[in-house]
Amino acid sequence: QQQVKQSPQSLIVQKGGISIINCAYENTAFDYFPWYQQFPGKGPALLIAIRPDVSEKKEGRFTISFNKSAKQFSLHIMDSQPGDSATYFCAPPGGASKIIFGSGTRLSIRP
Amino acid sequence: DAGVIQSPRHEVTEMGQEVTLRCKPISGHDYLFWYRQTMMRGLELLIYFNNNVPIDDSGMPEDRFSAKMPNASFSTLKIQPSEPRDSAVYFCASSPITSGGYTFGSGTRLTVV
Hints:
The structure holds two protein chains of two kinds.
Chain A: E1 4-7, E2 10-14, E3 19-25, E4 33-38, E5 45-50, E6 56-59, E7 62-67, E8 72-77, E9 86-90, E10 105-110
Parallel strand pairs in A: 2-10
Antiparallel strand pairs in A: 1-3, 3-8, 4-5, 4-9, 6-7, 7-8, 9-10
Chain B: E1 5-7, E2 10-13, E3 19-24, E4 31-38, E5 42-50, E6 53-56, E7 65-71, E8 74-79, E9 88-95, E10 103-104, E11 108-112
Parallel strand pairs in B: 2-11
Antiparallel strand pairs in B: 1-3, 3-8, 4-5, 4-9, 5-6, 7-8, 9-10, 9-11
C-alpha cells in the first residue's frame, strides 16, 4: 500500500551545501504534507509541513516546495550541517488519517 | 509535557515467550498509532486507535500480535508467541488531530533470540 515514492534513498552532501529530497505521491486527497527527521536511536520527529494551498514554506534553513500538478513535494536544506545527518521521511496522511511513510532518505553531511 | 512514553526501551526475549510493549500517549491526543521499523521494511503501521477504539488493524502481521487501549492514557502491544522475525524497533505515536503532525516515542528495541 505504498502511496509515496521518496528519492534518493541516500544522499551525501558537503557541509554548507544544499540537500534536496523529493517525494512523489498518488493520492490527490492528501491535504497535509510533512517531513519527519529521525536520528539513530530516536523516533521520527516532525520537521516541517505544508498545506496544499501554498507552494512553498520556509523555516530557517529548511524549505518545503510543493507542486500540486506534478503531485510532488520536496525538502531543501540550505547550508547543510553535520547535525542535519539523519534519515528523512515524507509522510502524507493516508486514508482515514493513517500516515504512510516513504522509504526514507539517509542524509550524510560531510564536514 | 513528557511526550510519548514507551517502555521498556530494550527487550530481549527467547522465541516462544510473550512480549508486552507499553505506551503512554500525550494527554489530550485522540489518536494513537503503533509502528514497527526494520531495515528491510522501513516504518510499517501496525494498528491505530481513535478515542481508545481500534480503527484499522490491517497492518498487524499475524494473530500473534494484539493491541489494546483500555483508557486514554495507556496502550499495549502484545506478541504471543514471539519469533526471531519479530525483532525490530516498535514505535508508538500520538496525534491530537486527524491530519497533523504525529509525536513519536523513543521506541522499544525488541530482540527475539
